[in-house]
């Protein structure tokens, strides 16, 4: 941390916000790489629709990473966008599905989005007491991430509203369940 932060925040508050945002930056960097992995490894019927649906998500998430990194710098911090930073901040497992069909990947990605959205909402809640500007930024990101998850779930939902991978809590389990 440098010797300054945003006016109206104490150095301690600025450091805490920067730390919260650093974890978010690592999450976004991991997510856009995971989505590109899915883009490259999805096969089967409906391939092209999903292949093309993923790229706009990748681009927006890359933009979120940039926005968060710039906010960290604004707070007086030094954003870390390296693979080592992602690994250090990671509280989740690496994406576990390789070359597979549309349903398998989308079921696994649905779980990825669930974890990211839940974690982002926790950060949003914490920022309510510290930095409303950073909170507002993450609220906007969260709304788009939730919409992306809806896009994914629309491919997995039955006409009765059931998800093909309901009750699964691992990516491989979700992929296996949706594949059937």
List the helices and strands and how they pair.
Layout: H1 11-41, E1 42-43, H2 47-74, H3 83-89, E2 100-101, H4 102-127, H5 132-156, H6 171-179
Parallel strand pairs: 1-2
Helix pairs in contact: 1-2, 1-3, 1-4, 2-5, 4-5, 4-6
How would you portray this structure in words?
By secondary structure, this protein is mainly α. The protein has one domain (11-179): Ferritin, core subunit, four-helix bundle (Ferritin, Up-down Bundle). The chain contains 6 helices and 2 strands; from the N terminus they run αβααβααα. It has helices at residues 11-41, 47-74, 83-89, 102-127, 132-156, 171-179; strands at residues 42-43, 100-101. Strands 1-2 form a two-stranded parallel ribbon.
Mean pLDDT: 96
Quaternary structure of the protein: single chain
Which stretches of 5+ consecutive residues score pLDDT under 50?
Answer: none
Give the helix tally: 6
Q: Mind telling me which CATH architecture this is?
A: Up-down Bundle
Short descriptors:
Ferritin-like; two-stranded parallel sheet; elongated; ferric iron binding; mainly alpha; 180 residues; 2% strand; 2 strands; Ferritin
What does this entry show, briefly?
With 180 residues, the protein is an all-alpha fold. It has helices at 11-41, 47-74, 83-89, 102-127, 132-156, 171-179; strands at residues 42-43, 100-101.
């Amino acid at each position: 941390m440098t010797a300054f932060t945003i006016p109206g925040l104490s150095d301690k508050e600025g450091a805490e916000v920067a730390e919260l945002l650093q974890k978010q930056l690592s999450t976004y960097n991991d997510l856009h790489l995971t989505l590109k992995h899915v883009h490259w490894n999805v096969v089967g019927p409906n391939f092209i629709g999903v292949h093309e649906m993923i790229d706009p998500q990748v681009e927006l998430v890359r933009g979120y990473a940039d926005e968060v990194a710039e906010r960290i710098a604004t707070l007086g911090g030094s954003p870390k966008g390296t693979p080592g930073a992602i690994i250090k901040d990671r509280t989740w497992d690496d994406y576990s599905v390789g070359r597979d069909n549309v349903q398998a990947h989308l079921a696994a990605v649905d779980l990825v989005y669930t974890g990211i959205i839940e974690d982002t909402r926790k950060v949003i809640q914490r920022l309510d007491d510290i930095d409303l500007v950073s909170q507002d930024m993450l609220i906007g990101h969260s709304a788009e991430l939730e919409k992306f998850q809806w896009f994914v779930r629309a491919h997995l939902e039955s006409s009765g509203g059931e998800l093909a991978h309901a009750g699964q809590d691992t990516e491989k389990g979700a992929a296996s369940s949706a594949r059937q």
